[in-house]
Amino acid sequence: MGRKDADGRRSKNAAETMGWKSRLRKSTRNTETVEKPKNKSKTVEKPKNKSKKGAISRSSDYSDTACEECGQGEAADKMLLCDKCDKGYHMYCLCPIVVKVPAGKWFCDSCSHKDKVKEFPMVQTKIIDFFRIRRTSETDKSCNEFRKTKRRTTSLIITKKKRRLLPFVPTEDPARRLEQMGSLATALTSVGVEFSDELTYRPGMAPRSANKATMEKGGMQVMSKEDKAALELCKAMCRRGEWPPLSVVHDHREGFTVEADNNIKDLTIITEYTGDVDYLRKREKDDGDCMMTLLSTGDLSKDLVICPDKRGNIARFINGINNHTAKGKKKQNLKCVRYNVDGESRVLLVAIKDIAKGERLYYDYNGYEKEYPTEHFV
Asked: How far is the C-alpha of 166 from the C-alpha of 353, rounded, in Å?
């Protein structure tokens, strides 16, 4: 899912999150001879678990299958066969695009009879319970600390002003904030994910002690005291139900995606990338396409990833750019940065320019590694 500092410049000690989230598995072929219906006498080589293994074997009779969307039969290794009707679809022709070969059986829209996205109930008590919002005075304390820190530092800057991260400004209208939270609750429940705004360490996965930022190959940018205060303020506001001005919308081409519900300033902290922390070596063959690098040590047995397939927040719905085209690159308005925060690696999504209300959020999944396939992204 390449390294940059908070100002967007390359730095030896800065670590922009490696954009790829998970490698697209190379498909393998296992075939078996099956008898066709009685009105056809010949037998064919039919791929086993064709959707799981992915591509159509060119040696099989399915090699001449054309995509139902574009009508082309090329790129057989990128074509999925419906496990019910046997029709073929290029992964990049589907809406939204399928980046990884699905595990198990796969059905096209016609055969799956997908229902319309079910809206989360717009009931305040249900939303408060879903996000575990609690009313405390911690937000006021964090806000006061942030203001004190800001006062102490600004008067000392004379020749060169260092750019600081900004806490987001929540929407003032409580009813609108409820709608924003409701849109995220709808998206999370639709994909079966529990809300979590923190990194989670589960039994059987990587322990918290494994997350040591000093193990990062090439070093990792240490978050300043001022930026940490801004981050803590953002966290405190979220716990209180004061959310960043963002809404999750469903697009027929991109799936769930995130757009600004108000104007957002450059360098604003959008969100932290959260989920279960696990070792990369245990997730190499994982079917999830939302994994994010947390720690890159150069040792596969110690590298860590964030897996938001069970627990996560709005970060998992922010889409990536097509970094193979100039038009795609222009859409980028966020960057993903890893920081050393009190000795642990944390991943933040930060605005890299002013974002207008209604603008969708995008960042580069790849950084400099170019391992995540984005050439067919919208």
From this structure: 12
- φ/ψ of 66, rounded to 5, equals -100, 150
Structure tokens at 119: 């809206």
**C-beta of residue 221 within 8 angstroms of C-beta of residue 341:** no
Q: What confidence tier does 34 reach under pLDDT thresholds 50, 70, 90?
A: very low
Helix (H, G, I), strand (E, B) or coil at 339: strand
209-239 pLDDT, tens digit per residue, is 999 999 999 999 999 999 999 999 999 999 9
**Integer Cα distance of 162 and 226 in angstroms:** 11
Q: Token pair 């900004």 is at which residue?
A: 166
- Could you give phi then psi for residue 363, rounded to 5 degrees? -140, 170
Q: How confident is the model at residue 254 (pLDDT cuts 50, 70, 90)?
A: confident
Query: What is the C-alpha separation between 100 and 371, in angstroms, rounded?
Result: 13
pLDDT over 70 percentage in the chain: 70
- Is the pLDDT at 4 greater than 50? The verdict is no
User: Hey, what are 60's tokens?
Assistant: 């099989």
- C-alpha 338/C-alpha 16 separation (Å) is 5
Nearest of 347, 320, 349 to residue 334 by alpha carbon: 349
Sign of torsion over alpha carbons 354, 360, 361, 364: negative
Question: Is the pLDDT higher at 19 or at 297?
Answer: 297
Contact assessment for residue 8 and residue 267, using Cβ atoms and an 8 Å cutoff: no
What CA–CA distances, in Å, run from 58 to 42, 44, 62, 112, 244? Answer: 18, 12, 7, 27, 49
The rounded distance, in Å, linking the Cα atoms of 290 and 310 is 11
The CB density around residue 155, as the number of other CB atoms within 10 Å, is 7
Beta bridge pairs of residue 34: 44
Place of tokens 């969708």: 360
What tens digit of pLDDT does each residue of 279-295 get?
Answer: 999 988 776 668 899 99
- pLDDT value, residue 115: 56
* Rounded (10°) angle between helices 124-131 and 174-190: 60
Main-chain phi, psi angles of 349, to 5 degrees: -105, 120
